[in-house]
Write a structure and sequence with these properties.
CATH superfamily of the largest domain: Dihydrodipicolinate Reductase, domain 2
Strand content: 25-35%
Helix content: 25-40%
Bound molecules: nicotinamide-adenine-dinucleotide
CATH topology of the largest domain: Dihydrodipicolinate Reductase, domain 2
Order of helices and strands: EHEHEHEHEHEHEHHEEEEEEEHHE
Radius of gyration: 20 Å
CATH architecture of the largest domain: 2-Layer Sandwich
Number of helices: 10
Largest sheet: 9 strands, mixed
Oligomer: single chain
Strand order of the largest sheet: 14-13-12-11-7-10-9-8-15
Structural class: alpha/beta
Distance between the termini: 44 Å
Shape: globular
Amino acid sequence: MPPLKYGFIGLGHIAQHAHLPGIRPLIESGDVRLQAFCDTNEDLVREVAAKWNHPACYTDHRVMLEQEDLDALYILLPPTLHTDAELIAAEKHIALFVEKPQTLDMEQAYQFDEVIGKSGIVCQVGFMSRYYPAAEHLGALLRERRLRHVNVQLFYSGAPIRFWTSRMELCGGSFVENTIHSVDLIRSVFGDIVQTSAFYVPRRPDDPERGPWNLPHAYVVNYQFENECAANFTTSRCLTEAGVSRREMLIVCDDSLIEWSSHRIVENGRTVWEEDPPSNAFALQAAAFARAVRSGNPSDVRSPYHDALNSLQAVLAANASAARGGELIAVRSLGR
Ligand SMILES: NC(=O)c1ccc[n+]([C@@H]2O[C@H](COP(=O)([O-])OP(=O)(O)OC[C@H]3O[C@@H](n4cnc5c(N)ncnc54)[C@H](O)[C@@H]3O)[C@@H](O)[C@H]2O)c1
């Protein structure tokens, strides 16, 4: 079978450090060929292409999509920079991989969803946490438990490493840009989120200067799921210099307190599943995406664009609620 021909838009951090290394085994096995790269930074696209067998280089995705015959396209752009690549790919029937957050504009997400849905293409949103074996084990465990509530606490340390991730208007804030992974993972087992109420701890004019950073210090978000379970997510972003980061995900069922991490599951104080060394979720996600591109079946990926909408709605609805003093927001009608 000839290799699948892949194109990339955006050759920045996540392309270089996660997706290309994740695809490497598929290139080595002859399943995938990197055909074309596009980045508006011409020096960068040439530099990355030189390390990855010299695919054709472009600085305009419209030209790339006009000139190249691709089977699949990775769109790895900051969320405010999506324009028409999704629409062109759907029209040309090119399978899509789109990094999260898919956009910060729900109207644009609904438009893309409609076009992608009508085209019938395979489209995976980059919620790679669903590909951890620990996520599969969690799903299996919870199918046999009575779910009640969830508590997720994320304490981030260090400063944002890219300009756009330091700006609320460009990344949507840490809850949208980062915590969306945990929200989506919980959604994968609890089902859709229907309403939210959120409070954020904002930056104040007299706060210590932190370069271009205008993100809130903390995000405290409550969710209610369709199945009437509830969740609380707390994301802290004021530990910049502390040198400690921590993620705690506690799932509470009748008579069962489950602590989840990407390589270990502990239930009622006892380790019930463990993996050492931990799997590379990006590689597992890449392999699953390639299989789906070959099968052409949109439901062969774990986060199709349409399904992933509720995770995006949930984090953007939290922003909307916090901006309105904690007002209860109906998640599914956001932006409609
Ligand atoms: N899954 C994860 O764990 C994870 C981790 C980090 C980032 N991400 C997501 O990946 C996406 C990209 O993030 P990143 O960290 O790689 O950002 P980045 O800023 O490092 O890279 C983005 C690249 O896109 C290029 N670009 C901008 N506009 C373009 C355009 N119109 N056409 C072509 N190229 C263009 C930029 O020049 C840059 O090289 C974001 O949505 C981010 O949230 C996901």
